[in-house]
Amino acid sequence: MQVTETLSEGLKRELKIDIPAGDLAAKLEDYMADLKSKANIKGFRPGKVPLGHLKKMYGRQAMAEILSNTIQETTQKAVEERSERPALTPEIDLPEEDAEKIMAGDADLSFKMTYDVLPDFDIVDFAGIEIERPVVEIEQGEVDEQVAEIAKNNTPFDTKEGAAENGDRVTMSYLGKIDGEPFEGGADENGQLVLGSGQFIPGFEDQLVGAKAGDEKVVEVSFPEDYPAAHLAGKAAAFDVVVKEVAAPGEATIDDEFAKGLGLESLENLKEIVRGQIEGQFGQMTRQRVKRQLLDKLDEHYSFELPEKLLDSEFDVVWRQVEEDMKRNEKTFEDEDTTEEEAKAEYRKIAERRVRLGLVLSEIGEKNGIQVTDEELQRALYDRVRQFPGQEQQVFEFYKNNQQALASLRAPIYEEKVVDYMLELAKVSDKTVTKEELEKLVADDEEDA
After folding, report:
1. Up-side HSE of residue 145: CA atoms within 13 Å toward CB?
2. Which residues belong to any copy of the PPIase FKBP-type domain (predicted)?
């Protein structure tokens, strides 16, 4: 194997690799010799099939396999001998005009490989990084408010005689039609609706005020122009409604019995769970804010050339999401007071930041022996699988057989572990804030992202 460097410019590399036809022929002979000892072909005794006959039958297939393995082995060896780290899998350029000659063993294997190398940079002493961690102290009043909201959502209703009023719960069957034709999702046999709650299409609930059990009504409404289902947005619809029951709201007594009705041991147990949920919610926001500060600090310290193809790949992901969001929200660049060129330049900067910080975190993790355990990856896989009820086995097999997809589960776990490692060494100080202040900090971060 002869390796010739044909380009070394910044992070770009191009190598020309030549492998003599004789080396390929020797590999083919070894392949055929091994095949001869195993081949079981009708008309020949085991191990007695002539090589010429084997080559005629399997020679092309064998050479294709040899070429594929040789290219893979030589490219890996070339990079290792140069002590370089490709940012992505090298691209191979095999001249098509020589392909038949190479397959026939009449020409040397000569190809180009191009790749970007990962940049070299020094890791800053992040032990000196100062981070302010905003912490919300959960007041008992906040817990009580949440418990009261739970009670409100679990208000008992008792069947009543007479007309329905705002606040009453109506149980009904209904069938929605547009231009006289039923539409998908517009029917229910035992739908329940609290009048005045604003759960249904505007105008629907108002027309049920005064209805009694047994009444049949035609409720005419129009779907809002911004209704999520595009095929219904702005359309006029008529609902055939049969009122089955009218029930008046009672008052939930917040006590141990109420908590037991929710499947808990006591009211105190309910409050503990609610407090934990609130702490978890604000804990996630605090984590988000702390991580953003840490990444901002790192971003200030690093400025180095990025592998172009890696950057292009990240930008494509970012830009595809931008286009999907704009299409879904029916927005244009003019609506955002910008142009496509200006927007691309802005999102290119976001992609640059992501790639740069990704390389920094990866380097920190590698140099400090941080790894994702099989147990952590397995847990992430099962969490992902549970997001697709009814398709668990298919999703599980997809990730198990797709290394790139599996890597997409590993990456965020690895990043969080590196962040945790850095935060243990950084100077982190707590600052008590209100929930409104924390929400604003996080919202500002998301706006600047």
Report:
1. 6
2. 167-246
